[in-house]
Amino acid sequence: MPLHGHAAARLPGIGGIDGGYIGMAGNWATWQRCGTKEIWSREDSAAANISLTRYHQGIGTGVYWFMGGPGVDPDYNGTTGRAHAWGAEQAAQALQEIAHKTTQVTYPVVFMDIELPGHAPSFTPADDNGWTNVYTSPCSGRISDSHIAPEVDRAELNGFAAYLAGHSANKAGVYSSPAIWSQIFGNGSAALIPHTYEWTYDDDTSSLARQPAGWCLSGTRTCARFFGGLTAGSRYALMWQWSGGGGTWNGFGDFDQIDGSRTP
Questions:
Q1: Confidence class of residue 1 from pLDDT cuts 50, 70 and 90?
Q2: How does pLDDT run across 241-259, given as a tens digit for each residue?
Q3: pLDDT the model gives residue 146
Q4: Over the stretch 40-97, which tens digit does the pLDDT of each residue have?
Q5: pTM for this structure?
Q6: DSSP strand E in 106-160: where?
Q7: Which contacts (CB < 8 Å, 24+ apart) does range 246-249 have?
Q8: What per-residue string of b and e applies to 157-183 under the rule 16 or more CB within 10 Å gives b?
Q9: So what CATH class is 21-262?
Q10: Percentage of the chain surpassing pLDDT 90?
Q11: Is the distance from CB of 143 to CB of 125 less than 8 angstroms?
Q12: Which of 213, 238, 242, 212 is nearest to 227 (CA)?
């Protein structure tokens, strides 16, 4: 996405124009009253929107929803039908959160943040966010069953996407990585999402010495890897978190690249 001239949002650490802001619309755990972490900067969102509306630069503001898997559903029963409904309930909450933001959300893709964050108690009481284990209750942190079928996990994703499509003009996207994706959804049909927009965080780096050129870091073999059957050549491959994700601390925060021409 070519950026030039003047704009309100600037990139820390590496200079240049910031192409947009992607903030957390909400977190399943705070929604269930057992998490404290939501990441939203009104100032960064406003600057990104000024860059878009006044200077015609970037994407403005986008959002993601920190997903809880079927295993933290208070009404979990192991069926795909209930998992589909749990996904829809989270989509409904995400849309409510978006509507209440003090700055306008301008980017049309809402990303489901699907990951296994490990020990991150301020984000979630469940180390796997309920994608691979079933918990005695959403907030207990105590496992009652250590298996969830990939098709049940996939039913939740489908429920979120279907609700989003039926109740808004937004498109569904997913934030994850190839390794995490296969741990949750396996390697069969449940893992394939050829028509869902993607934001990946593999491969990434803690160094800011080289920035992306296309889908690779300039002068290196470090390139974006997508998941669910997508490659970098797909029009559904939208974003790459090339530094700051997956624990690659660079001293500033998350840096992402987006293909603006693929915006739906």
A1: low
A2: 999 877 788 998 899 999 9
A3: 97
A4: 999 989 989 998 998 888 899 999 999 999 999 999 999 999 999 999 999 999 999 9
A5: 0.95
A6: 109-113, 134-135, 143-145
A7: 246/177, 246/201, 246/202, 246/204, 248/204, 248/205, 248/206, 249/206
A8: bbbbbebbeeeeebbbbbbbbbebbeb
A9: alpha beta
A10: 81
A11: no
A12: 238
The partner residues of 176 in beta bridges, in order of sequence, read 200
Handedness of CA 221, 224, 230, 232 (dihedral sign): negative
Q: What would the mean pLDDT of 207-234 be, rounded to a whole number? A: 95
Rounded distance between C-alpha atoms, residue 76 and residue 223, angstroms? 38
Q: What is the DSSP string of 190-238?
A: GG--TTSEEEE-BS-BS--SS-EETTEETTSS-B-B--TT--TTSTTEE
Tokens of 206: 């803690």
As a whole number of angstroms, the distance between CA 87 and CA 163 comes to 8
- In contact, 61 and 105? CB cutoff 8 Å: yes
Query: Which residue(s) pair with 17 in the sheet?
Result: 10
- Token digits for 19? 């192409």
Distances, alpha carbon 77 to alpha carbons 32, 71, 82, 135, in Å = 18, 9, 7, 11
Cβ distance 151 to 190 under 8 Å? yes
pLDDT at residue number 3: 53
Residue whose token pair is 């192409």 = 19
Q: Which helix (H) or strand (E) holds 81?
A: helix 80-99
